[in-house]
Known about the structure:
This protein has helices at about 10-20, 35-40, 115-125; strands spanning about 1-5, 25-30, 45-50, 50-65, 70-75, 80-85, 90. The chain is α+β, with helices and mostly antiparallel strands and about 130 residues long. It has one domain (about 1-125). The longest helix is centred in the first third of the chain and has 9 residues, at about 10-20. The two termini are about 20 Å apart. The mean pLDDT is about 85. This is DUF1489 family protein.
Amino acid sequence: MTKIAYGAESPASLKAWLESHPHEALMTTRYLPKRHEEMAGGSLYWIFEHVLIGRSPLLGFDQREDGRWHIRLEPRLIAVHTRPRRAHQGWRYLDPEDAPRDLGDGEDAGDVLPARLVGELAKLGLV
């Protein structure tokens, strides 16, 4: 599943937010994803400035008293090989074969197109 890192000022601020939760990070969503059963044990991939930057292991889903849902995440950001990704609202499913590999120790994310350029290419349907 992919999600925009809405409100994050940088990948470092996203990582800090996740790590500020000692046991699990909670995100709130209005609707339970249709494929929620197969997603537990998978990951939520974060998009920042039109680029997949990392993932957080998905622990599960819990309904709140007001009818909304918590998405329960491990409180960590695992860096992945970056990949351009269009912005979207809500979440999108990511097939396992399309998921980027995790970065190894000492491995660099590599070159990434500037977010503004990725945005322009996305408008043209090229990324």
